[in-house]
Amino acid sequence: MGDARAQNTVRISIDGRPVTVAVGTTVAVAVWNHGIRRFRVGVAGAGRGPLCGMGICYECRLTIDGQPGRRSCLLPCVQGMCIETATESECTEPAGGTRDV
Amino acid sequence: MSEPDLDRSEQQPRGSGRPSDPSTESGDCLSGTAYESAELPTHQQLATTNQRRREFRSDARRALGRPAGERFKTKSGLNIVVVGGGPAGVAAAVTAASADPTARVTLIDDNPALGGQIWRQGAAPEPAVGARKWLRRLDQLGVERRCPATVIDTPSPGRLVVADAEGTSELAYHRLIVATGATERFLPFPGWTLPGVLGAGALQALVKGGLDVRGLRIVIAGTGPLLLAVTDLVRRRGGRVVALAEQADFSSVMTFGRSMWRSPSKGLQALGFAQSLWNVPYRFATWPARAEGEGQLERVVLVNPLGEANVVECDLLACGFGLRPNVALAQALSCDVVDGRVVVDDRQQTIVDGVYCAGEPTGIGGLDNALLQGRIAGLAAVGRSEEVRSLSRRRRREQRFVAVLEKAFRLRSELRSLPETDTIVCRCEDVTWGRVREFDDVRDCKLKTRCGMGPCQGRVCGGALEFLKGFRPETPRPPFFPVTLNTLAPTGASERTPASEDAPEE
Amino acid sequence: MSHHGTPQADRVLIVGAGIVGASCAYELTRRGYAITVIEGGRPGGGATAACMGHVVVMDDSEAQFALGHYSQRLWDELSDRLPGSVERDLCGTLWVAEDDEEMAAVHAKHAFYTERGVKVEILDAPALRRAEPELRPDLLGALRVPGDSVVYPPTAVDFMLSEAVRHAREHGVDFELVCGTPVERLSSHWVALRDGRRLEGDWVVVSAGRGALDLLPEALPGHAIRPRKGHLVITDRRPGFCRHQLVELGYLKSAHSSGDSSVAFNLQPRATGQMLLGSSRQFGRDTAEVELDIVHKMVDRGRHFLPRLGELQAVRIWAGFRPATDDHLPLVGPVPGHETLLLAAGHEGLGITTSLGTARLIADRVSGVDPEIDPTPYLPSRPGADHG
């Protein structure tokens, strides 16, 4: 029984917390069911969550295994996947500040 | 990174153990001599794409009126590519493969699993009996599945550029069936960007994929029969539908309802929905004026033409303003698109030789229409004109349904005044209504405000601006969907190129 | 078409509202001229909308340097007044060197710019790594030109035209923008539109980019403007992936290679956090369709310098045409035999940078003022190349 369940589930991490989900669950669903509504941070700084659920809108973008900007609604969870939400990767830093060498 | 795979379509010869459909044994105009003694289009690598690309537009036009099949012929059979793995695409692939056992049929979809949105499978699959039957046939007939994979360019007639996990490759076809489905139309209103506000179809897709809605207070709003299907689904999954707001008037919806009873399958569907509506506060001529909450959705203000406002506390707002045909690929192929729909004849043939279109891209008609048009396109693509003709009466009946649906759920003009000055219209670039409303030209608006320049490439704001300002979506440019540069340019495929002769500049 | 505004103001007709035409409108209205700008498409919608917007001083020739240096100073003077939408970013340019030969070029460039008063500095390998950690670690160094900047050209055109409106109002002269109708013919005092309208003025400035010479009453001996196609790829937002405009020096090695298409590494960080990847050069192409094989080469070249570049997503790819002259210098000044018919075209890949200097030269000619730089290298009357 335990084995059977293990075979039908995968373990992933969401913002550093270990989570077990059913095989075939998309990342978007796993993140939502984990209680997270704010998937990414928009250009102007406001939180955003999934809009279209089918890979069109890019609102459910997350950083997955270090790669930002992945559409979580299209990606099935796989064993060991590392998911980070609201990484604010889009907020631009002020120009010039770090340029002086 | 693996070696580039520029010529995937030549790799696997079709399996010989494919069952043939008894009804396909008879000859037809395309079998036999029509494909004899000719050859597959020579596969060339991306390096030679540009020459053909330059000739594409004129070629596409020249090809009009030439009998299908003359351009590309093959001993081994037709190469048929179907783009879109929803009902129309699956029906087209199955029908073509069974009608012409010598055809090689490839089905492309950008989702990991076939079935499209309506037959969506997930961690907890719905018992979609119809879907399982069709999908099983796909395998029995040896249809090659390519998913997840995305068409990112149409370099020349007979060729697609397809991106998948391994990179980009060319795929050649003699016949192309565009079955790219539809997406929801979203309209901006204050608060629509709050997490917790999502599309009606989106909620359906996510719930089918295992999204837990147990105990959640859900408002379903927008327009169209989809709202009923979503209500039905979330209630069965333990969600509490605290309001169902249909923007169309009661009388329009009733007219539509009566037309559904004339079709047995639609009537049964309607009956099922009617049952699921028991105890749901169902309001007509009502729409969301704003969504509110701190950081995420907490309540929705619903309004009606009398100006009455109703505040509904909720956890989720599923809101879709109808479906919108996905015509981008057809546009890129130089098909004729009028009023947002791909123009086809009664064989699902577009104005471009060898290119067919089936299902929602030709007009929103639902599952039955998609299956029927898919079958017709599959038959037409292999030249089985008689069978195509035999389906024409049903096709016309479904076409009438398309018109009825469109009329009943036409968007009311009040929705044009929903966005306020600071309401975001382009969610990728956070461009507000205040910035875009002054523009009269879609391209000017895009260049000056960045509206539609984000990763969704205008797929969300495009539908809104089509309604709000009458902007017609521009013909897409490659890549049709964002892809990584590594996907676009698989490593190892090209040697070091001669460097530029003079300095790069601005 | 009647003259409005003050009766004594000369009217200048400007044909083409790209960055060059818009800058001419800006400069001429500033000096009190009445202006009609005639644009067949939409302002800033041609090469201006397709280019990178790198404001860069180049050193291929003394004349090219002089116009670029002058223009960059004018951009700097304007910078405080540019609205945020122009996205001006003083990111500087890094010319990166892969080997000793290119490092020698870095030193040569350093000497050239320093002699002419342009602030530059040489970065050794460790300094380069600190400046741009994403660059591959074995590069030898780079020349840093901190004064180079980036603007977003379509909104820069908007700014120039709106300033022109303001100037005209201040001077009480007329300003008019006629859009959407192509020009049929023109001479030194009038412009005929395809819809039959005929506009008259005291001067006519032709700033129509690649099509400019075709509009002239007769051929310009010895000169041609050829469309030179270029591709650009814009990525998703990755703020900080690189901070300077990065350009390879490798082009020096195969200078004047005769192939009809070439690519070079050129990456620009946009103010939005997006990366804009260039660049390709092709002659003999007549449509702006994207050629993925060329893009492939551009990405290869980019990855050669930035190993992780391939992880970024391409959001859009487009192609456009640079208006290229044979001697790589723009045609600025009167058309021989037509003293009031002025050309301001053929800026190839430097139109954004040199637009402001060009506009000054044109306005100086119209108002009879001595220009700040020697205008003779750019005059259309200069000897042209031999066309075989």
Q: Return the structural class of chain A.
A: alpha+beta
Mean of residue pLDDT of chain A?
A: 84
Number of helices of chain B: 15
Q: With helices defined by DSSP (H or I, 4 residues minimum), what is the helix count of chain A?
A: 2
Number of strands of chain B: 23
Shape category of chain B = globular
Architecture (CATH level 2) name of the largest domain in chain B: 3-Layer(bba) Sandwich
Low-confidence stretches of chain B: 1-76, 123-127, 493-506
Specify the structural class of chain B.
Answer: alpha/beta
CATH topology of the largest domain in chain B: FAD/NAD(P)-binding domain
- Specify the CATH homologous superfamily of the largest domain in chain B: FAD/NAD(P)-binding domain
Please provide a written account of the structure.
The complex is a heterotrimer of chains A (101), B (506) and C (388). Chain A has helices spanning 2-7, 27-33, and strands spanning 9-14, 17-22, 40-41, 47-48, 61-64, 67-71, 82-84. With 101 residues, chain A is of the alpha+beta class. Chain A has one domain (2-84): 2Fe-2S iron-sulphur cluster binding domain, sarcosine oxidase, alpha subunit, N-terminal domain (Ubiquitin-like (UB roll), Roll), CATH 3.10.20. Chain A has a 5-stranded mixed sheet. A two-stranded antiparallel sheet of chain A has the order 3-4. The radius of gyration of chain A is 16 Å and the shape is globular. Chain A starts with a helix and ends in a 17-residue tail after the last strand. Chain B is of the alpha/beta class and 506 residues long. Chain B has 3 domains: 8-183 and 325-383, 3-Layer(bba) Sandwich (FAD/NAD(P)-binding domain), CATH 3.50.50; 186-321, FAD/NAD(P)-binding domain (3-Layer(bba) Sandwich); 419-469. Chain B has helices at 49-62, 87-99, 129-140, 200-208, 226-236, 250-261, 264-276, 328-332, 366-381, 385-390, 392-408, 433-436, 442-449, 459-469, 485-488; strands spanning 79-83, 104-108, 144-146, 150-156, 159-164, 167-172, 175-178, 182-184, 197-198, 217-223, 240-246, 282-283, 287-292, 299-303, 309-313, 316-321, 323-325, 337-338, 341-342, 355-357, 424-426, 431-432, 483-484. In chain B, the strands form 7 sheets. Chain B has a 5-stranded parallel sheet, with helices on one face. In chain B, α2 (87-99) links the parallel β1 (79-83) and β2. Chain B is globular and about 65 Å long. By secondary structure, chain C is α/β, with parallel strands linked by helices. Chain C contains 9 helices and 19 strands. In chain C, α1 runs parallel beside α6 (153-171), α1 (19-30) packs parallel to α9 (351-367) and α3 (62-78) packs across α9. The radius of gyration of chain C is 21 Å and the shape is globular. The interface between A and C is medium-sized, with 14 and 22 residues.
